[in-house]
Write a structure and sequence with these properties.
It is a single chain. The protein is mainly β and 347 residues long. It has no helices and 30 strands. The strands form 7 sheets. Strands 1-9-8-7-6 form a 5-stranded antiparallel β-sheet, with no helix packed on it. A 5-stranded antiparallel β-sheet has the order 2-5-4-3-30, with no helix packed on it. A hairpin with a 2-residue loop joins strand 11 and strand 12. The chain is globular, with a radius of gyration of 19 Å.
């Protein structure tokens, strides 16, 4: 394992939401009232080079947390408020056990990473493809570690276009490619192909518990959103009907999915598709600004999302209402990934 310890310094300039009023200060909150502070709801958003954006109050304020590499974060996964993993566009894998105050490089993977999942400080899985030539995709693979990044094992998936991976615990996980779904019950030592879905684009998977997973994507023929659900750990899957008001073509194509209990949220260009009953019924939640991109749920009430442009979105009521964080031009790159947890109260 690489021993380079990267002690991250939180930037002195906190990105605080603007104050009230109709004067010059209003320019600091171009998206309306900022999110209401919720102490203990923590989130980490990745996408800018060398830094994460971090909140400890449910998205009311954000600060930059450096990991001191000239690389963009591709995905971030936190098992709890202290234990997290990060993978970059250069294949660098970093880990933290103090909520991101310090990051350690644990691997330099020969992989163009797409996603990372983790269940604790020892177990993580990375999805991506090897590069056989400049700008040319290579064979897809998933890397896994069970010793905190000391060693990694690779499982190849040929030319499958892997997209995302999720684990409910150290044994039960689901892996998705463009048009296929696999599941594992042994921590990723072996994977079983469960569904092949031609004419689809699968983009994201969320784990509720060892038996319940949901996969999101869209139908390439009609552009309609697709959601598949399993209640037996991935052995069988059924398509859920997403019945919402029509939108412009392509605006309901699923980007990322998050879950908490039976509550589901899926980002799309038109807003956030949401279900409070495991996908039996759906509604389209409107957002005050931007097109939602990455999404994470700390619990059934507290949900945060990035957008394809500037605002970062937060909800404290399960998405019934969303608020956007400013100011404008605070980001240099879109935030492609986000994860959120509820911190345990201090003993």
């Amino acid at each position: 394992m690489a021993t380079l310890a990267l002690v991250a310094a939180i930037a002195s300039l906190a990105l605080l939401a603007g104050c009230g009023g109709d004067g010059p200060e209003a320019a600091d909150r171009p998206f309306g009232d900022p999110p209401v502070p919720v102490p203990g709801v923590r989130a980490w958003a990745a996408g800018e080079a060398g830094v994460l954006l971090v909140t400890a109050d449910g998205g009311a304020s954000w600060m930059r947390q450096e990991f001191f590499l000239p690389q963009r974060g591709v995905d971030v996964a936190f098992a709890d408020a202290q234990t997290g993993w990060l993978v970059t566009d250069a294949g660098t894998v970093l880990a933290t056990t103090d909520g991101g105050a310090g990051w350690t490089v644990v691997e330099q993977a020969k992989l163009t990473a797409k996603a990372i999942a983790a269940t604790d400080a020892r177990r993580a899985w990375i999805v991506g493809s090897s590069s056989v030539a400049a700008d040319e995709p290579g064979a897809s693979a998933i890397l896994r570690t069970t010793d905190g990044g000391e060693t990694w094992r690779r499982t190849g998936f040929g030319m499958a276009q892997l997209a995302d991976v999720a684990f409910a615990d150290e044994r039960h996980g689901v892996l998705v490619a463009l048009d296929r779904i696999w599941s594992t019950r042994d921590g990723g030592r072996s994977w079983r192909l469960r569904r092949e879905l031609p004419m689809t684009v699968l983009t994201s998977v969320a784990a509720g518990d060892p038996r319940r997973f949901w996969v999101a994507g869209w139908d390439t023929q009609l552009g309609d959103p697709l959601v598949y659900a399993t209640r037996d750990g991935g052995a069988t899957w059924r398509r859920l009907r997403v019945d919402v008001a029509p939108a412009k073509p392509g605006e309901l194509q699923a980007r990322q999915i998050a879950c908490a209990g039976e509550s589901l949220w899926i980002t799309c260009a038109a807003g956030v598709l949401a279900s409070a009953d495991g996908g039996r019924t759906w509604e389209l939640q409107q957002v005050p600004a931007g097109q939602p991109l990455a999404i994470a749920a700390a619990d059934e009430e507290h949900v945060l999302a990035t957008t394809a442009s500037q605002p970062i979105l937060a909800s404290a009521d399960g998405g019934a209402t969303w608020r956007a964080f400013g100011p404008e031009a605070v980001l240099e790159q879109p935030l492609a990934a986000i994860d959120a947890v509820v911190a345990e109260p201090a003993q």
